[in-house]
Amino acid sequence: MVDLSTVIAGVPLSNVFFNAAGAWCQREDELQALLDSGAGSLITKSATYEAREGNPTPRYAPLADGVISGGGGSISSIGLANEGYKYYLNYARQFDVTRHGKPLFISLSGLSLADSVKMVTAFAQAELSGCILEINFSCPNVPGKPQLGYDMNAMDTTLATLAPLIEKPFGIKLPPYFDMAHFDQVAAVVNKYDNLAFVTCINSVGNGLAIDLDTERAMIKPKNGFGGLGGRMILNTALANVNAFYRRLAPGKQVIGVGGVVSGKEAFLHILAGASAIQIGTQLMEEGPPVFDRVKRELESIMEKKGYNSVEEFRGKVKTL
Ligand SMILES: O=C1NC(=O)NC(C(=O)O)N1
C-alpha cells in the first residue's frame, strides 16, 4: 500500500483528494455524501453574507468529447448560489473533526470587503477546530463583479485586512494566470502574509463560451452563455499554475491543485507539478462521490508501478529538459 496522506495548513488529511468548492457541497446532504465518500476532506460551497439564488438556469453544462476541441469538460455560471455564511458557520460549529476523521474547509466569497470582514470575524470568533478557510478571490460569474484575483493591488489590500483577522493558517482560491509577470506579482503578494498557508490553483477558466452545433445556441443561459470552463480541457493550464506558484511561494507555503483531474493520472501530474492536495470539480459533478475511491485506486496503482511509496517522494519533482 502506498501513502496518499498529506498535511494542509498544519491539518492532517487521510488522503490528498477532496471536492472543489462549488461541487457537491451547497447543502448538508451533499456534504454528508462527501463525508461518506473516499475523500480525505471536504469544502463547502463559497458562502456570501446573505443566501443567494444565483444565476438563471441552465447554468451548468457538461461538454462531452467532440462538442468542443480539446475533449471534454464543463461550462458553468452558477453565480455563487449558496445558503448564506451562517448556514456554513452552523455546520462548522457542529462538525466533529475527530468523529469524521476529515478536516472541514470553508470557502468564503464576500461580495464586498465589508462582507468578507464580517464573515471572517464570525469564523475566527467561533474558534472552530479542524476548520480551514479558503477565501475565494476568483468567482468569474457574478455579473458586474470582476475577479479580485486579477486585481493585484485589491488582492493585497484585502489580504492586509483579512489575514490579521484570521490569525490561523488559511488559503485563497486563485483564478488561472497566463503571464509570467502575473505569476511573479501574485506570488510576491502571497509571500507577504505569514498565515497565508496555501493557494488553490485554479478556479474555472473564466468566461468561456460553449455553443451547440445543431441548435446554434449557447449551452448555458447566464451572461449570453459566458461561463467558467472546467474539466479535462483546463488540465494543462492548471498544471502550469500549480507549478508556477510551487516554484515561487516561500518555504512552507503550499499549493492545492484543481483543474482537469478525471483520473489518477492527472492527480499524479498535479502532485508532480507541486500540489500538496487535489480538488475535483467537474468529474465529481459528472460521476458523483464514488469518483474519490476510483481516483485514489488509480493514483495508488500509478505510484506502485513507478516505485513511489508516498506522495512526498515525487511532489514538485517535475523534470525539465
Ligand atoms: O468561484 C466560482 N467559480 C466558478 O466557476 N463558479 C462559481 C459560481 O459561479 O458560483 N464560483
In short:
Its main location: cytoplasm. The chain has 321 residues and is α/β, with parallel strands linked by helices.
Question: Secondary-structure blueprint of this entry?
Answer:
Elements: E1 6-8, E2 11-13, E3 17-19, H1 28-35, E4 42-43, E5 60-63, E6 73-76, H2 85-94, H3 97-100, E7 104-108, H4 113-125, E8 131-136, H5 152-166, E9 170-174, H6 180-190, E10 196-201, E11 205-209, E12 211-212, E13 217-218, E14 226-230, H7 235-248, E15 254-258, H8 264-273, E16 275-280, H9 282-287, H10 291-306
Helix pairs in contact: 4-5, 6-7, 7-8, 8-10
Bound molecules: oxonic acid.
The site of oxonic acid has 14 residues, from loops.
Report on this model:
The chain is of the alpha/beta class and 321 residues long. It has one domain (6-56, 79-207, 233-313): Aldolase class I (TIM Barrel, Alpha-Beta Barrel). 33% of the residues lie in helices and 21% in strands. The protein has ten helices and 16 strands. It has helices at 28-35, 85-94, 97-100, 113-125, 152-166, 180-190, 235-248, 264-273, 282-287, 291-306; strands at 6-8, 11-13, 17-19, 42-43, 60-63, 73-76, 104-108, 131-136, 170-174, 196-201, 205-209, 211-212, 217-218, 226-230, 254-258, 275-280. Strands 3-16-15-10-9-8-7-4 form an eight-stranded parallel sheet. Strands 5-6-14-11 form a four-stranded antiparallel sheet. Helix 7 runs parallel beside helix 8. The radius of gyration is 18 Å and the shape is globular. The two termini are 32 Å apart. Mean pLDDT is 96; it is low at 66-70. Oxonic acid binds at residues 22, 46, 76-80, 136, 138-139, 141, 203-204, 228. Catalyzes the conversion of dihydroorotate to orotate with fumarate as the electron acceptor. Its cofactor is FMN. It catalyses: (S)-dihydroorotate + fumarate = orotate + succinate. Pfam families: DHO_dh.
